[in-house]
Design a protein that fits this description.
Penicillin-binding protein 2a (Domain 2); elongated; 469 residues; alpha+beta; Beta-lactamase; 34% helix; five-stranded antiparallel β-sheet; two-stranded antiparallel ribbon
Length: 469
């Protein structure tokens, strides 16, 4: 404390070898909002010292990046410390300066993150565990990237107590996990646009193809349900996306087969990392017949193809992958590389898809949010600028008959068995600029939780960044 420092400073004449020293420390103004993306600095541990050859990390009092951007760009941000070499007498007192080398400041870094959008996103998502991301669909610049619950990075930078750290470890909502990169979820219905695109690209269906949804079907003694009791009746591709008809996508997946389905999903870089140098990023999983045979030693089953068609089963995706894929639909089918840095623009390259098929999917996504009967219609914006998108409700456990009867109350099951709530979308509809993805863990249907959060994010983006909103 300053009081302790003052006492020492006033008694320097009797403290041989003690030299007052004032330095600057990193302090985070928004420690919770940016914890997982910016990370924090801390004192290097033995492992850090062994992995670093530069003597810089052995400088007394030095702190290095331990997580996030702080860790990745540590070398650029940390600079070079200065030093002063003194000649001392027998009593340990400095008598003259032998050498002085001034320190060199680290490089300044400007990220693409929007402070106000980040704060809003954290506030809206805050009561749920999960993640929310906003991205520029052409440059790949990430404008907001939140993981909740979060933690106070200043406590890590200045030394967190063991009891405080233990509390974070015991928290079942996992505040230390970077959910936008490390969270791996069954994507649920947010993957249906890709399934539909796969069917169009492989000429399995066209936009006029219809299928009858009775509410449930039976295959080899196993029942497969649509989310809507009684079903949707006869339905076409656009309405199947708009109303998120599971029976329609069971049939599309059956006609496609899992291998062709997986091939299209991988073109959106599911099953791969999306960013450079983030050690915590997970790849997710895109299953196919070879994967199951090689990893599980079992043959692929037709029923597994059906549930893959609605984003369930073995398939796993991160929120960043989901947001990236929606950006690639929104920009007309160009590859996007997400980045947190303003000086690292994405170089757009055309994906191997028919532009007309991308357009068909996007029109269905517009309907899903802006036409009555769409699953995210309740979260639409009433202003001049609209957004489009797809809800998802991801099951984490197989539902019993009683579970289906209790479905109206998402809190009827134990927390860890409740569905995840998802939404992915883009806007404005007329000239898309932004993509948003939201995952709220164990929060229930995507239309109830994730879509309203995304709507708030789009509303902010339109009003702040587009003048005629």
């Amino acid at each position: 404390t300053w009081a302790e420092f003052s006492k020492i400073n006033s008694n320097l004449f009797i403290l041989n070898g003690v030299q007052p020293f004032i330095s600057m420390e990193r302090h985070y103004n928004y420690p919770y909002e940016f914890a997982h993306v910016l990370g924090y600095v801390g004192v290097p541990n033995e492992n850090d010292l062994q992995n670093q050859k530069n003597d810089l990390f052995r400088t007394p009092g030095i702190k290095i990046g331990k997580l996030g951007i702080e860790k990745i760009l540590n070398r650029e941000l940390i600079g070079t410390p200065g030093f002063t070499r003194f000649e001392v007498n027998a009593a340990g007192r400095a008598v003259r300066t032998v050498e002085f080398v001034d320190g060199v400041s680290g490089n300044a870094l400007k990220t693409s993150l929007d402070l106000e959008l980040q704060k809003l996103t954290y506030q809206k998502l805050g009561r749920y565990a999960g993640s929310a991301i906003a991205m520029d669909i052409k440059t790949g610049e990430v404008l907001a990237c939140v993981s909740t619950p979060s933690f106070d990075t200043n406590k890590f930078a200045f030394g967190i107590t063991q009891p405080e750290f233990n509390e974070l470890l015991k928290n079942e909502r996992k505040p230390l996990i970077n959910k936008f990169l490390s969270g791996q979820y069954s994507p649920g219905s947010v993957v249906k646009p890709i399934i539909a695109l796969a069917a169009l690209e492989n000429k399995i269906v066209d936009q006029d193809y219809t299928h009858f949804c009775p509410g449930k079907i039976e295959l080899f003694g196993q029942e497969f349900y649509c989310w809507k009791d009684g079903g949707h009746g006869r339905i076409n591709l656009k309405d199947a996306i708009k109303k998120s008809c599971d029976i329609y996508f069971y049939e599309v997946a059956r006609l496609l087969g899992v291998d062709r389905l997986a091939e299209t999903i991988r073109k959106f870089d599911f099953g791969k990392t999306t960013l450079k140098d983030f050690d915590e990023e997970r790849k997710g999983l895109v299953p196919d017949t070879k994967w199951k045979k090689n990893v599980l030693g079992k043959p692929w089953l037709l029923g597994e193809t059906l549930i893959t068609g609605i984003g369930q089963g073995y398939i796993l995706a991160t929120p960043m992958q989901i947001c990236k894929s929606m950006a690639e639909f929104a920009n007309g089918g160009y590859k996007v590389n997400p980045t947190f840095y303003l000086d690292e623009k994405s170089k757009l390259s055309r994906m191997d898809f028919d532009a007309e098929n991308i357009k068909i999917i996007n029109e269905a996504l517009v309907a899903a949010t802006n036409e009555p009967g769409g699953t995210s219609y309740g979260s639409r914006l009433n202003g001049k600028l609209k957004f489009a998108g797809k809800t998802g409700t991801s099951q984490v456990t197989k539902l019993t008959v009683k579970d289906r009867e209790d479905n109206a109350n998402p809190n009827s099951r134990e927390y860890k068995y409740r569905d995840h709530s998802l939404f992915a979308g883009f806007g404005p509809v007329e000239e898309p600029k932004y993509a948003v993805a939201v995952v709220a863990e164990h929060a229930g249907p995507g239309s109830r939780i994730a879509a309203p959060i995304a709507s708030s994010m789009f509303d902010f983006l339109f009003k702040k960044r587009i003048s005629n909103a």
